[in-house]
Amino acid sequence: MADTVRRGALAGRRPSSALLGVVPFFVYVTVFLLVPTLVVVVGAFIATGPGGQGGLSLANVRALAEPAVTSALWHSLILSAVTAVAGAVIGAFLAYAVSTARADGVLRRFTTSLCGVLAQFGGVALAFAFLATFGATGYLTKLLASTGLDDTGGLWLYEWNKGLMLVYLYFQIPLMLIVFLPAVEGLRPQWREAAETLGGSTWLYWRKVAAPILFPSFVGALLLLFTNAFSAYATAAALVSQGSPLLPLAIGGTLNSEVILGQENVGKAMALLMVVVVAAVMTLYAAIDRRASRWLAR
After folding, report:
1. Please, which residues have CB within 8 angstroms of residue 84's CB and are 6 or more apart in sequence?
2. Which residues of 24-41 are buried (b: 16+ CB within 10 A; e: fewer)?
3. For residue 196, how many other CB atoms are within 10 A of its CB?
4. pLDDT for 8 beyond 60
5. Could you say which DSSP state residue 23 is in?
6. In the list 45, 89, 217, 261, which could disulfide-bond 292, CB 3.0-4.6 Å?
7. Longest dimension (CA), the chain
8. 255 contacts 43 by C-beta, under 8 angstroms
9. Whole-model pTM?
10. pLDDT in tens, 85-103
11. Where does the record place the ABC transmembrane type-1 domain (predicted)?
């Protein structure tokens, strides 16, 4: 009996195989998330100027009030908000259309698989695809110019409030479909049948039953799209080569610029601002997602 108890106690001290399985994940999160975040937080409060080399200072934080930084932040917020709202609305309608197809049908499987690929198709590859099509020497630009339908020369593609919005929608809409489709599928047919039995119209069902249930999921997906656009860098960097109209580009400029030197920690302060904005949005998203999960689980 004593040997059994001793063996059980020793077994209880051994590391669980499940815990060992997540060790690589914890290492990955520590190296690529926690350590960079710590570097950003600490560096944002360390001065790099002649008067305070290496000392604690709020100079980098005060630099966030400069017009160039506030303008970049404002542009990023506008770009993220517009593409998030447009992507959420269009993606929501597409998600409903896909939900009406057969669950095991080819069309539905193809659409969801395609959206899964397009939602991850960003960065330089996406920018090159749009440049080859709508850029100054793009195929479609030359074709429209030859017919007299376009006299802009494709220059609109390089503007953050025109071309970049269109490019962002390319991956925002598929992402919305993937995120919002489970919520639409959670609508039970019995709810619509009950509304029709009580004499309710289709409009009444959507206004009084379906919309209130889907609203938390819609807002949560909207916040997710906002964060996705707000933190995007590679696509914007490949398209916008003049200036730094967006906050991620401004951060990159402070780190790799050959003209403005000694501004690395100002870039870290801007990165800290982005972390605060993303953290606030994702906290709100998590709260809304929990509420939506309770509704759809009933």
Report:
1. 172, 222, 223, 225, 226, 228, 229
2. eeeeeeeeeeeeeeeebe
3. 13
4. no
5. H
6. 217
7. 93
8. no
9. 0.84
10. 999 999 999 999 999 888 8
11. 73-285
Distances (CA, A) of 140 to 118, 156, 165, 168: 21, 13, 18, 19
Q: Mean pLDDT across the stretch 149-160? A: 79
Return the pLDDT at 193: 87
Alpha-carbon gap, residue 113 to 176, rounded angstroms: 13
What pLDDT score does 158 carry? Answer: 86
Q: What's CA 272's distance to the chain center, in Å?
A: 17
- Reported residue count of the chain is 298
- The dihedrals phi and psi of 227, each to the nearest 5 degrees, come to -65, -40
209-229 pLDDT, tens per residue?
A: 888 889 888 998 999 999 999
Report the candidate in 284, 268, 161 with the shortest Cα–Cα distance to residue 221: 284
Q: Which two tokens stand for residue 179?
A: 């995120």
**Separation of alpha carbons 191 and 240, rounded Å:** 49
Task: Find residue 56's DSSP bridge partners.
Answer: 46
CB 217 within 8 A of CB 136: no
